[in-house]
Protein backbone atom coordinates (compact mmCIF):
# COMPACT_ATOMS: atom_id res chain seq x y z
CA UNK A 1 0.00 0.00 0.00
CA UNK A 2 2.84 2.40 0.75
CA UNK A 3 4.21 2.02 -2.80
CA UNK A 4 0.76 2.70 -4.25
CA UNK A 5 0.36 5.78 -2.04
CA UNK A 6 3.64 7.22 -3.33
CA UNK A 7 2.17 7.26 -6.84
CA UNK A 8 -1.26 8.33 -5.60
CA UNK A 9 0.07 11.37 -3.75
CA UNK A 10 2.33 12.40 -6.64
CA UNK A 11 -0.59 12.47 -9.10
CA UNK A 12 -3.30 13.60 -6.69
CA UNK A 13 -5.49 10.67 -7.75
CA UNK A 14 -7.11 7.72 -6.00
CA UNK A 15 -5.76 4.28 -5.11
CA UNK A 16 -8.13 2.83 -7.70
CA UNK A 17 -6.65 5.07 -10.42
CA UNK A 18 -3.17 3.79 -9.59
CA UNK A 19 -4.30 0.16 -9.63
CA UNK A 20 -5.97 0.64 -13.01
CA UNK A 21 -2.71 2.09 -14.33
CA UNK A 22 -0.69 -0.81 -12.91
CA UNK A 23 -3.16 -3.28 -14.43
CA UNK A 24 -2.83 -1.56 -17.80
CA UNK A 25 0.97 -1.76 -17.62
CA UNK A 26 1.03 -5.41 -16.49
CA UNK A 27 -1.44 -6.65 -19.10
CA UNK A 28 0.42 -4.69 -21.79
CA UNK A 29 3.73 -6.32 -20.81
CA UNK A 30 2.15 -9.75 -20.74
CA UNK A 31 0.39 -9.42 -24.10
CA UNK A 32 3.47 -7.89 -25.69
CA UNK A 33 5.40 -11.01 -24.67
CA UNK A 34 2.65 -13.28 -25.99
CA UNK A 35 2.79 -11.56 -29.39
CA UNK A 36 6.58 -11.93 -29.53
CA UNK A 37 9.71 -12.28 -27.44
CA UNK A 38 10.49 -9.48 -24.98
CA UNK A 39 13.47 -8.16 -26.91
CA UNK A 40 12.58 -4.51 -26.45
CA UNK A 41 10.37 -4.52 -29.53
CA UNK A 42 6.76 -3.40 -29.44
CA UNK A 43 4.88 -6.46 -30.63
CA UNK A 44 1.36 -5.40 -29.73
CA UNK A 45 -1.10 -4.99 -32.59
CA UNK A 46 -2.79 -1.58 -32.68
CA UNK A 47 -6.17 -0.83 -31.12
CA UNK A 48 -6.58 -3.83 -28.82
CA UNK A 49 -10.00 -3.55 -27.18
CA UNK A 50 -9.81 -5.10 -23.72
CA UNK A 51 -13.11 -4.56 -21.96
CA UNK A 52 -13.23 -4.89 -18.20
CA UNK A 53 -16.02 -5.20 -15.69
CA UNK A 54 -14.99 -2.96 -12.80
CA UNK A 55 -16.82 -3.54 -9.53
CA UNK A 56 -17.56 -0.36 -7.58
CA UNK A 57 -18.43 0.02 -3.91
CA UNK A 58 -21.28 2.54 -3.85
CA UNK A 59 -21.31 2.97 -0.06
CA UNK A 60 -20.80 6.57 1.04
CA UNK A 61 -17.94 5.45 3.27
CA UNK A 62 -15.78 2.69 1.77
CA UNK A 63 -13.67 2.24 4.92
CA UNK A 64 -14.71 -0.83 6.89
CA UNK A 65 -14.51 -0.73 10.69
CA UNK A 66 -15.46 -4.23 11.79
CA UNK A 67 -15.69 -3.21 15.44
CA UNK A 68 -18.39 -0.66 14.55
CA UNK A 69 -20.29 -3.19 12.43
CA UNK A 70 -20.21 -5.75 15.23
CA UNK A 71 -21.64 -3.25 17.72
CA UNK A 72 -24.26 -1.99 15.27
CA UNK A 73 -23.20 1.64 15.71
CA UNK A 74 -22.91 4.44 13.20
CA UNK A 75 -25.72 3.21 10.93
CA UNK A 76 -23.37 0.79 9.18
CA UNK A 77 -24.97 -2.16 7.37
CA UNK A 78 -23.75 -5.66 6.53
CA UNK A 79 -23.91 -6.98 2.99
CA UNK A 80 -22.73 -5.89 -0.43
CA UNK A 81 -23.61 -2.62 -2.10
CA UNK A 82 -21.68 -3.06 -5.30
CA UNK A 83 -22.38 -1.83 -8.81
CA UNK A 84 -20.17 -2.15 -11.86
CA UNK A 85 -18.96 -0.21 -14.86
CA UNK A 86 -17.62 -1.33 -18.23
CA UNK A 87 -14.08 0.01 -18.63
CA UNK A 88 -11.68 -0.20 -21.54
CA UNK A 89 -8.23 -0.90 -20.12
CA UNK A 90 -5.52 0.82 -22.24
CA UNK A 91 -3.19 -1.73 -23.85
CA UNK A 92 -0.01 -0.12 -25.22
CA UNK A 93 3.74 0.02 -24.68
CA UNK A 94 4.63 3.49 -23.35
CA UNK A 95 8.18 4.77 -23.08
CA UNK A 96 7.44 6.54 -19.78
CA UNK A 97 5.87 4.17 -17.18
CA UNK A 98 3.89 6.97 -15.54
CA UNK A 99 1.89 7.33 -18.77
CA UNK A 100 -0.03 4.26 -17.63
CA UNK A 101 -1.22 6.21 -14.58
CA UNK A 102 -2.20 9.19 -16.72
CA UNK A 103 -4.17 6.95 -19.07
CA UNK A 104 -5.75 5.14 -16.13
CA UNK A 105 -6.90 8.45 -14.66
CA UNK A 106 -8.26 9.48 -18.04
CA UNK A 107 -10.42 6.40 -18.57
CA UNK A 108 -11.74 6.30 -14.98
CA UNK A 109 -12.58 10.01 -14.83
CA UNK A 110 -15.55 9.62 -17.16
CA UNK A 111 -16.87 6.69 -15.16
CA UNK A 112 -16.62 8.62 -11.89
CA UNK A 113 -18.74 11.41 -13.37
CA UNK A 114 -21.43 8.98 -14.52
CA UNK A 115 -24.17 7.13 -12.64
CA UNK A 116 -23.29 3.80 -14.25
CA UNK A 117 -22.33 2.00 -11.02
CA UNK A 118 -25.39 3.25 -9.14
CA UNK A 119 -27.66 2.36 -12.07
CA UNK A 120 -26.32 -1.19 -12.39
CA UNK A 121 -26.73 -1.79 -8.66
CA UNK A 122 -30.25 -0.36 -8.51
CA UNK A 123 -31.38 -2.10 -11.70
CA UNK A 124 -29.99 -5.42 -10.44
CA UNK A 125 -31.97 -5.14 -7.20
CA UNK A 126 -35.11 -4.16 -9.15
CA UNK A 127 -34.79 -7.05 -11.64
CA UNK A 128 -34.39 -9.57 -8.82
CA UNK A 129 -37.51 -8.28 -7.08
CA UNK A 130 -39.65 -8.11 -10.24
CA UNK A 131 -38.42 -11.02 -12.35
CA UNK A 132 -36.60 -13.29 -9.94
CA UNK A 133 -33.03 -14.42 -9.42
CA UNK A 134 -32.92 -16.70 -12.51
CA UNK A 135 -33.69 -13.89 -14.95
CA UNK A 136 -31.29 -11.54 -13.16
CA UNK A 137 -28.54 -14.17 -13.29
CA UNK A 138 -29.08 -14.79 -17.01
CA UNK A 139 -28.91 -11.07 -17.82
CA UNK A 140 -25.79 -10.60 -15.71
CA UNK A 141 -24.07 -13.60 -17.29
CA UNK A 142 -24.84 -12.33 -20.78
CA UNK A 143 -23.30 -8.95 -19.97
CA UNK A 144 -20.19 -10.47 -18.38
CA UNK A 145 -19.73 -12.76 -21.39
CA UNK A 146 -18.93 -9.68 -23.48
CA UNK A 147 -16.01 -8.65 -21.28
CA UNK A 148 -12.58 -10.23 -20.81
CA UNK A 149 -11.41 -9.03 -17.38
CA UNK A 150 -13.10 -8.68 -14.01
CA UNK A 151 -11.49 -6.00 -11.80
CA UNK A 152 -12.24 -5.53 -8.11
CA UNK A 153 -10.61 -3.13 -5.66
CA UNK A 154 -12.59 -3.24 -2.45
CA UNK A 155 -11.18 -1.78 0.75
CA UNK A 156 -10.95 -4.27 3.59
CA UNK A 157 -10.88 -3.76 7.37
CA UNK A 158 -8.42 -1.16 8.60
CA UNK A 159 -7.88 -2.90 11.96
CA UNK A 160 -6.67 -6.43 12.64
CA UNK A 161 -9.47 -8.95 12.89
CA UNK A 162 -9.57 -12.57 13.97
CA UNK A 163 -11.71 -15.68 13.78
CA UNK A 164 -12.25 -17.44 17.11
CA UNK A 165 -9.14 -15.74 18.53
CA UNK A 166 -7.05 -16.65 15.48
CA UNK A 167 -5.76 -13.40 13.87
CA UNK A 168 -6.12 -13.06 10.11
CA UNK A 169 -2.81 -12.44 8.33
CA UNK A 170 -4.36 -11.52 5.00
CA UNK A 171 -7.62 -11.72 3.05
CA UNK A 172 -7.70 -13.35 -0.40
CA UNK A 173 -11.15 -13.27 -2.06
CA UNK A 174 -11.96 -14.90 -5.38
CA UNK A 175 -14.89 -16.23 -7.42
CA UNK A 176 -15.57 -19.05 -9.86
CA UNK A 177 -18.11 -19.96 -12.51
CA UNK A 178 -18.10 -16.60 -14.30
CA UNK A 179 -17.26 -16.29 -18.03
CA UNK A 180 -14.31 -13.87 -17.89
CA UNK A 181 -10.80 -15.08 -18.71
CA UNK A 182 -9.00 -12.97 -16.09
CA UNK A 183 -10.24 -12.00 -12.64
CA UNK A 184 -8.30 -9.50 -10.53
CA UNK A 185 -9.02 -8.87 -6.87
CA UNK A 186 -7.02 -6.12 -5.18
CA UNK A 187 -7.78 -6.59 -1.50
CA UNK A 188 -6.50 -4.17 1.13
CA UNK A 189 -6.17 -5.14 4.79
CA UNK A 190 -4.20 -3.35 7.50
CA UNK A 191 -2.35 -1.06 5.04
CA UNK A 192 -1.33 -3.91 2.75
CA UNK A 193 -2.66 -4.88 -0.67
CA UNK A 194 -2.89 -8.46 -1.89
CA UNK A 195 -3.39 -9.29 -5.56
CA UNK A 196 -5.54 -12.37 -6.08
CA UNK A 197 -5.49 -13.60 -9.68
CA UNK A 198 -7.83 -16.18 -11.20
CA UNK A 199 -7.51 -17.11 -14.88
CA UNK A 200 -8.77 -19.42 -17.57
CA UNK A 201 -5.58 -21.39 -18.22
CA UNK A 202 -6.54 -21.92 -21.87
CA UNK A 203 -6.33 -18.14 -22.29
CA UNK A 204 -3.58 -17.41 -19.75
CA UNK A 205 -1.42 -20.56 -19.54
CA UNK A 206 1.29 -18.93 -17.40
CA UNK A 207 -0.48 -16.90 -14.68
CA UNK A 208 2.64 -16.71 -12.49
CA UNK A 209 4.39 -14.68 -15.19
CA UNK A 210 1.40 -12.34 -15.28
CA UNK A 211 1.72 -11.84 -11.51
CA UNK A 212 5.42 -11.06 -12.01
CA UNK A 213 4.38 -8.45 -14.59
CA UNK A 214 2.20 -6.76 -11.97
CA UNK A 215 5.11 -6.65 -9.52
CA UNK A 216 7.50 -5.31 -12.16
CA UNK A 217 4.97 -2.71 -13.37
CA UNK A 218 4.41 -1.33 -9.87
CA UNK A 219 8.15 -1.03 -9.32
CA UNK A 220 8.75 0.70 -12.67
CA UNK A 221 5.89 3.14 -12.12
CA UNK A 222 6.93 3.93 -8.54
CA UNK A 223 10.59 4.44 -9.50
CA UNK A 224 9.62 6.68 -12.43
CA UNK A 225 7.29 8.69 -10.17
CA UNK A 226 10.01 9.23 -7.55
CA UNK A 227 12.51 10.17 -10.27
CA UNK A 228 10.16 12.71 -11.86
CA UNK A 229 9.36 14.22 -8.48
CA UNK A 230 12.98 14.72 -7.46
Structural notes for this entry:
By secondary structure, the chain is an alpha/beta fold. The protein has one domain: Nonribosomal peptide synthetase, condensation domain (Chloramphenicol Acetyltransferase, 2-Layer Sandwich). It is 44% helix and 18% strand. The chain contains seven helices and seven strands, in the order ααβαβαααβββββα. A hairpin with a 2-residue loop joins strand 4 and strand 5. Helix 2 packs across helix 4 and helix 5 runs antiparallel to helix 6. The two termini are 21 Å apart. The relative contact order is 0.18. The mean pLDDT is 86.
Please summarize what this structure is.
The chain has 230 residues and is α/β, with parallel strands linked by helices. It is built from seven helices and seven strands; from the N terminus they run H-H-E-H-E-H-H-H-E-E-E-E-E-H.
Amino acid sequence: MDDVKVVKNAFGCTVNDVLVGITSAALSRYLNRRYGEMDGAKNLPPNIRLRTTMLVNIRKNSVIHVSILMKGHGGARWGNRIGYTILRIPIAMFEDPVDYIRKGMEVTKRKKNSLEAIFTYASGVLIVKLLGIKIATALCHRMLSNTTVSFSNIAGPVEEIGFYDHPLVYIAPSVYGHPQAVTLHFQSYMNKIKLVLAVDELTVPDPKRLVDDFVASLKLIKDATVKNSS
